[in-house]
């Protein structure tokens, strides 16, 4: 017998289902936006670089001022040291003069004692003459002693003035050194900022190349 049944292939008459394509996003506008963002970022970096240069100029000016002040202090200290040396030399001379005058006073006292001891054997006129010479010598010694006291007083004033000026110089010197250290710290901070900006600028330029559209 002949089988009249017609075999139909499976799925005949059913709709074919298309596979949805999975495509990656190709958003040229976003690339352009990124490029614009990177370009603006680069401009911001360059603006900061200009600001950094201005800060360096300001620091250079302040550093020069501090160095000038340090030179002024150094010159003033040299001048004071010279004055101090002269004052010390004067002090030595005054001490020597005082020692010699004390010897003169002792000698005068000895001469007066000798004159008093031998006065009975001298004529009245001779005695008066010797007493007058001793009085004159005594007067000169007292005059020189008075001048010595004035010079000693002036010397003490000069030494006190020098000491006061040295104290002021010491304080100014400390201030200048503190200022220099402060400026050095600022310079180190600027150097660090410069390195950071250089790195950021390099990376931004690389990113700009990556998003560049022909």
Radius of gyration: 51 Å
Flag low-confidence runs. 1-8
Distance between the amino and carboxyl termini:
76 Å
Order of helix and strand elements from N to C terminus: HH
Largest sheet: none
Q: How many helices does DSSP assign?
A: 2
Mean pLDDT across all residues, rounded?
Answer: 87
Strand content: under 5%
| Number of extended strands | 0
Helical content (DSSP H or I, runs of 4+)? over 70%
Structural class: mainly alpha
Anisotropy-based shape? rod-shaped
Structural features, described:
With 214 residues, the chain is mainly α. The chain has a domain at 67-186. 83% of the residues lie in helices and 0% in strands. The chain has 2 helices and no strands. It has helices spanning 28-118, 124-210. Helix 1 packs antiparallel against helix 2. The longest helix is centred in the middle third of the chain and has 91 residues, at 28-118. The protein is rod-shaped, with a radius of gyration of 51 Å. The two termini are 76 Å apart.
């Amino acid at each position: 017998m002949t089988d009249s049944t017609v075999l139909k292939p499976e799925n005949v008459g059913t709709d074919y289902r298309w596979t949805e394509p999975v495509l990656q996003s190709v958003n040229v506008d976003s690339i352009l936006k990124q490029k614009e963002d990177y370009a603006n970022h680069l401009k911001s970096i360059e603006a900061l670089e200009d600001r950094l240069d201005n800060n360096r100029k300001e620091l250079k000016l302040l550093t020069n001022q501090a160095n000038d002040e340090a030179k002024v202090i150094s010159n003033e200290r040299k001048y004071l040291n010279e004055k101090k040396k002269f004052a010390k030399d004067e002090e030595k001379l005054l001490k020597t003069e005082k020692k010699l005058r004390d010897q003169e006073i002792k000698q005068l006292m000895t001469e007066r004692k000798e004159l008093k001891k031998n006065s009975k054997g001298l004529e009245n006129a001779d005695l008066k003459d010797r007493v007058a010479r001793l009085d004159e010598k005594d007067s000169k010694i007292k005059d020189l002693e008075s001048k010595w006291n004035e010079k000693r007083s002036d010397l003490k004033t000069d030494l006190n003035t020098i000491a006061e000026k040295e104290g002021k110089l010491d304080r100014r010197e400390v201030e200048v050194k503190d200022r220099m250290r402060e400026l050095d710290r600022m310079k180190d901070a600027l150097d660090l900022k410069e390195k950071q900006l250089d790195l950021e600028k390099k990376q931004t330029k690389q990113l700009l190349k990556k998003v560049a559209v022909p």
